[in-house]
Every structure is written in structure tokens, then in C-alpha cells.
Amino acid sequence: MGAGEVKRRWIVVYVVVVLGLNLGVNVNAQQVPCYFIFGDSLVDNGNNNNIQSLARANYLPYGIDYPDGPTGRFSNGKTTVDVIAELLGFDDYIPPYASARGEDILKGVNFASAAAGIREETGQQLGARITFGGQVNNYRNTVQQVVQILGDENSAANYLSKCIYSIGLGSNDYLNNYFMPQYYSTSRQFNPDQYADVLIQQYSQQLKTLYDYGARKFVLIGVGQIGCSPNALAQNSPDGRTCAENINNANKLFNNRLKGIVDEFNGNTPDAKFIYINAYDIFQDLIDNPSAFGFRVTNAGCCGVGRNNGQITCLPLQNPCQNRDEYVFWDAFHPGEAANIVVGRRSYRAERSSDAYPFDIQRFMSLGDYYETNAQQVPCYFIFGDSLVDNGNNNNIQSLAKANYLPYGIDFSGGPTGRFSNGKTTVDVIAEQLGFNGNIPPYATARGRDVLRGVNYASAAAGIRDETGRQLGGRISFSGQVNNYRNTVQQVVQILGNENAAADYLKKCIYSVGLGSNDYLNNYFMPLYYPTSRQFTPDQYATVLIQQYTQQLKILYSNGARKFALIGVGQIGCSPNALAQNSPDGRTCVQRINVANQLFNNKLKALVDNLNGNTPDAKFIYIDAYGIFQDLIENPAAFGFRVTNAGCCGVGRNNGQITCLPFQRPCRNRNEYLFWDAFHPTEAANIVVGRRSYRAQKSSDAYPYDISRLAQA
Question: According to the UniProt entry, where is the signal peptide (predicted)?
Fold first, then answer.
């Protein structure tokens, strides 16, 4: 055998290791009813526009890249809280207190004011501003309006307890107070350590007031590297590049104490939750590794006057730089939209363990959102599928289809577990939405009473047809998974004492089935190994698959299953592997594959009607993974993605010719990639998948309804 043939076979081994693209994606379902924002010019969106203040930004070129032009935002475009609001699923940005009226306040209010600080005197040399205490007072007024709208205090308290409260103050207490001795005496009254203590004491008092007025979910945002701003460099740095360490060290003292009060408040207010966002270190990443984030200039403003464009801030109608996305800073003090997007995304979904403490905003949401209580909605959740949802069943069998090695699991709390992703799979997310405390165990390790909460039978390389994926070695086909379920049923009977009790228990559980991808990927479109493409037309093959699929569903039904979620096949023709192998430009999806997938999906959806008509004591729903995935491909930015045609980890064209190798270095910006490897989505995509499968965001997402309603049926 020649070297070329060895290489070709080795590549096939790695390239075909996967198993399905039953993708679903959250079209950013609104995760909380409202979002309240407290802060300074970093997040002010217009509260200073009509007050007597020098701290205003309601003129061009501020807002030059914002859809509505100058609004009072101190940036060329979006601020960090705009980005967070998008990721939280809000259709529009949170209105400023200055203009929020009527029922608009029910979605939240932005109270932030440029030049504001924790201390009342901070920023006074700039004229009027709304201090932290003033912003809290404005919030109290808003609470009274909420009471009037909702009818009584109990309803208002219940509503507000589900909202997010982000607080980002402290920067001006250094910039426009402590390090401005010509105007303020604080640097003579306190050393930096003492001053941080004083600030935190005053900050804590305001948090307590917010708590007394209904706030329960707090996001405390640390102070960034003020000593690295163009203004600090212009005033203090001999070379115009070295950050002012005396300022940064003082900032770190404050941040350390702010992180400390998160533990303190979490311990003393058990009905509230507090998290800390480490803006300082996120910003340090931008300074230390600018090219990794697309930046070229870190020490000068895109718009400004003097040394580093930092001695005078951006003047009215001044011409800013053209390459704004390459500048970390927009003006002497404030980041540009490009930097705000990075900070906002990492605040919402941490990319490093240090980004947020004890967890990020996204995890905050998974602890319970306003749509559901955290109560477990069904007694158990049984999962049938392929590598998209396998969580370890292939680990100890003779198979090439395994993912129990790094970098798989790099972002999962348990490390590499056999999940074919950097983190969670869609069913992990669905389990969270259903209220389960912890993930559903794989059949390979489920023991004793653990099976009462459900079992994951999914196996990488598995298909509806028994022969599917055989070139990869061992795998557990759909029929094998169903046989394993039958063994589990016997265990449930033994635990609960009799068959009637077991039947009554199992009929309340959710059964999700997501197979079919490998029957195309590792069967029909692999003519070197399988004859099916010569035996059947695509339409005939879809019919054969549905017939075999139906037989397994009937066996599940005969063994107690009554609530079925049938997940369609995703757009396999858009995977990095399909693009690498078949797409001339590396971006255009392979239509012959996708058309075949749609034939299967159409028949699967029709099967739902057939089974609902013929088994009245059971419920079947269909999840349109294909259509949801199409949303991601066509509108990636709406979901926070930048790269849709390449794997975060892989080898060759599109990182899709060979899948992720053991200990290979994946991309750093994993949350911006739709695909983790040549075939499988990232955790970021899976989170959207699970949520949109659980609660449909379009009428086409689920038929006749979604998983949240199936749980209640």
C-alpha cells in the first residue's frame, strides 16, 4: 500500500467521525423580563443630553456607526450593555431614564450618567450628572411606576425579582476624583487602599437599597484599566505606550474588594444572586493580544486631539479615523464599538474562568428565568441520538468515533467526557430548561436509582440503519439504543416495584430522538463504503429511513414512552467538512446533501401527524432543526457568531478536512464560531439550539408545539 493511500485512509478515519447536525438555535429568546443599568459614560445612552453638563456625547462623530446616529452614547456605536441586551434576547436596546415612558419601563431602564461616580462629589467639575445615589433614587421612582402598571406591590416584586441589574461604577471616582488633586482632596485624605474601602462601603449601601426595592439578580462590573486609556498615556506615559501603573494598581484594589462583596452578599442574601465581571482582565487581553481580536491600535483614540489623541476628547464634527474597528479606543477614555462587543460578549459568556465570578451572565440565566420556575417539569428525560448528543457511551467501546480527549470538553466543567463539542450539547441545555439539577447520565455509567431521572443512550456514528457508520467500528445504532432502553425499563420496574407503577412513571417523561444525520453522512453520501445511493433515489431512501425509524418509535411506545420530541436533521451540506470537500468557494452550502436532508425532514414532520392520529394517548412533536440552523447561517451576527464556514478546531480547508485532533490547539474566540470541529457545533450554538428547541421563537421551529408545551401535556 502506497504512502498516498495510507494518508487518504487516515484522513477518512478522522473526517467521517461524526454523526449528525440536528441543529437548533435560539433566536435570542428574551431570557429576562427586564434589564436595569446603573453606570457612567461607558454605558450612558442619553441621560445627560438635556442637563447642564460638559459630559455629553449627543453630537457627531459620536454615534457615527450607530443606526440612530448620536444618542448620547460615548462611542462610535454600541456600548457593552447594548451588546449584553442583544445577547439577553431583547428586541431593542434598553431606553434611558430620561425618555422611558409608560409600559416601556417594563423591559428595563438605563439610569447611567456620564461623569457619575459612587461618591456624590465625583465629576462635579464637569457640571450636572446623576450620581450612583441619584440613579438609585430614579430607580425607586421607576419601581412605583411598575407597581401602578402591574396593579400591586406583590406583582411588582415578583416581576422585578426576575430582572437583571448591572452596575458599573467606580471609574470616575478615580479619573474624576482621586487622581485629580487640583479639584478633589480624596488623595490627601486616603491612601489607595483606604479609598477603595470607602468606595466599597458606599457602593454596598446602594446595593442594599436596590435589594430593598426588589432587585435580586446583580451583575457587578469591575473597573477597567484606566491607566491604559489614551488620556492616561498622554498625561503620564513617557513613551506613550506604557500604562500608568499607579492608576491601574488603585483600580485593582477596588476590583479585589468588589469581587469580595460578591461572596459576602451571596452569603447574606440567599434569595439574591450576585456575580462579578472582571472587566480589568478582559481589557488586558485586548491590550496584550490586540491582533487576536482584530485590533491594531491600542494606545490612541480614533477621535481626539493631542498626544495619543488623548489630551482633548472628540470634538463636535471632528473627522475620526476611518479604520475604527482596528482601534481599541474611540476617544481619550472610551472604547470603540468593536471593543465593546468583545467586552459585552465575554461578560455574557465567559471565555476564560477569570472573566466572571462565580459564573457569567449566561449561566446566571440558566439558574432560572422568568418563563419557568426552577422546578423539574418532568420526572425523567430519555435521549436517543448520535454524536451531537453522545455524552460518553462510545468512550469504552472499540470505535474511532470518540471524543474523550482534549480539546473536546475544554469549556465543559467535567473536561472531556465524550461530548463532541467544547462544552455543553443541546440536550444538556434542554435538561437545564426542563429543570434538571445536573446532566442526564450516559447509559454506559447510569446505575441504580440514577436511571429514574433519565438516561442518554446516544452513540457517535449511530444511525437509523444498523449498518450506518460501521467503517468507524463500534457504535450503538438506533435499534441498539432502543434495546438498551428496554433494559432500563426493567430496572425501573424493579426500583418502583411493579409494571403499573413503572408505566405510570415513564409516561410522564420526555423522549427526544435525533437520528438520521449519519444515515446520510456515513452511509448514503459515502458510496465507497455503502450501496444505498445506488439502490435508492433520495426520495426512496428517505422513505426507507422513516419506515425503520417508525418501527423503533413503536417499540419505545410499547415500552412506556408517551412524550416524543423528534428532532429533524440539520443542514449537513453547510458543515465545514461538506464545504471543504464540495464547495468551490468554501462558503456555498452543498445543495444535493441539503435537499436530501429536507426530504427526510418533510417525511419526519408528516410522521408526527400520523402518530398523533393513531396513538391518542401519546404526544409527538417535531423540531425543525434545518430551518433553525438556516437562521444561523443567514444571520450569524444576530446570534453573536462571526465564523460559520469553518471549525474552531480541525485541519485543512475550512478546518474541515480532518476533525479536531488530540491536544490540538483550538481557536480562542470559540463563542464566535458556529462549528467546533468539521461537523459539530460549539457550545455557543448548542445553547441556542437547546433553548429554541425548548421554546420555539418562530412558528416553524416546532410542530405542533415546542418541548416546553410537551412537558406540560
Answer: 1-29
